[in-house]
Structure prediction request, 484 residues.
Amino acid sequence: MILSSFHLLKFFILTFLTFACFGKPHRYQNRCLEHDNHHNTEEMLAALDYIHAQCPDITHIYDLPLRSTENRPLRVIIFSDQPKIHEPLEPEFKYVANMHGNEVVGRELLLRLAEYLCQEYQNQNEQIQNLVDNTRIHLMPSMNPDGWEIAAEYAWNTTQDLAFSDISTMMKEYGAKDWIMGRANANDIDLNRNFPNLDKFIYAYNHHSHHKNNHLDMETFRLLLKDHDCMKKPYQIETVAVAFWIMKSPFVLSANLHNGDLVANYPYDTSENNHKQYSGSPDDYLFRQLAEAYSYAHKQMSSPGQRCDNEHFKDGITNGAAWYPVCGGMQDFNYLASNCFELTFELGCDKFPPGKELKSLWDDNQHSLIQYMMKTHIGIKGLIRNEEGESISNAGIKIYHIKDGELNYIDHDVKSNLDGDYYRLLPDGLYAIEVNSLGYKKAIQYVTVQNQINQVNAQRVDFVLKQATMEEINRQEVMKKYWK
Ligand SMILES: [Zn+2]
Prediction:
């Protein structure tokens, strides 16, 4: 009897607590997500569930089909007005954090960002509602959950003499100080050196008059299945899962969140000879603008002066290879294997700061995280169809920048998605857009791009392709064989 009363009391307490977390009809109360401490894997997954329960109509949770080496889920939360589907003409965005397991600020910021998007959407914050309604946003707080646990456990085991009462207090007051422990995955492989090194193809192709600078899928598959990465290590399950996710999803823009410095890093991450030197991509000007979108909106990243060690980054941005060359990074893989443009943001000198510092780190980054997502909507987008109104997928979209009466090819084509929709991030300027698809005549349109601040719809440029003649199709087939 005493036992059952106890259970009854426990039931009422739990019911009350659950109600306190989930029972809010209008305003979010921040009762369940801790803002001043780190979340271990279990807590991180619970936090995502909690946010989904708060905003079920605009969120969707899914796992990548493969789990981490130690069998932890690689979990993603989506925000959108139709979170479960890709809507044609609605671009997709992603943030990936905690790829290096001991670089943990991005992981906590993405949880906080998810909570913020949910809360502000419900509070009818116009900018957030517009962003969520017109974008499909994927947040992966941890790409390397095993590494996080290794870093946390090592920190706990090496701080026994500091006499923290438990690991949670240690996390909050002290964090983790080791520079390396937990960086790699459970097989001790650095995931940000473990992607297929597509840069080497680009530099090799540059010596030919005809080459390819996008969607290097066949090479990717071959490398993933048979070979080793550029550090001669086997491809890891986390890398394979994320590589296929990148290639299969219609992402337009993305960022990979790290720690250890304070800077926005943009492609390329390697130079031709692997020396430390500036190595811009064909979209160099655009990438610099995207990097500045983050660094300028950040409270400290772009301010002058020395940051973490002796390095000084003008405007808080750097070309990857000019800083230090990295082969097999995820950033360049996105650009060269898919339609997605990715940058890497280093969110602070301290890799695993005390949890009590997370509130001010959120203050530093909140505006940047939002401003960068807004950039998913710069440039142009549209539908590509035939004269019968059917969608044309996999059409190639070439961009020529028109300057001083000259057409300058930006040597990086994007492709249309299954629904025939395409997206091309572009800075302001005059452009010729050329669309090619096998069996159809080439089509060209001229557009002036003038991006507005905080626009949530890129300029619309649709194409209706006309059927090619038999002679033109034969010529296309011959050219296709020639390129192969
Ligand atoms: Zn890192």
About this structure: Residues 38 and 139 are 17 Å apart (CA to CA).
